[in-house]
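Quick check before the chapter quiz. The format below is the same one you will see on the exam, so make sure you can read both the input and the output lines.
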Amino acid sequence: MTIILNRIVSLLHKYQQKTLYLFVGGWNTLFGFITYSLFYYFLSDTVHYLILLIPVNIISITNAYICYKLWVFKTVGNYLREYLRFYFVYGIGFITNLLLMAVLVELIYLNPIAAQAITAIVTVIISYLGHKNYSFKS
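Here is the expected output.
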């Protein structure tokens, strides 16, 4: 058992940034999903489900930027440049999210909460590649 635990610790250390990215990404996904669910629960009678994505994304992107900067990429300075790049990458994810949500809800008739869960998987992949190769690249 000790050998297995030592091997796991060794792998986590070797892939520390990727491991942290997955943990922070998991948190960000959960945070965004809960935030969207709360907005949908309280505002869906008066605000269209796609419009709800706008404030949710602003809140979620800001949360994600802070988490990635502090705990994953650990960059110093360049706040505005990184934040704008970060928004650009998430902008691509946001457009993808809007399109997939519309297809899943309007054409396939999924509940917006279920559709958001599905689109989260796609946007996580897009954001990982974008942040790794663009947002926090020095």
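If your answer matched, good. The chain is about 85% helix and 0% strand.
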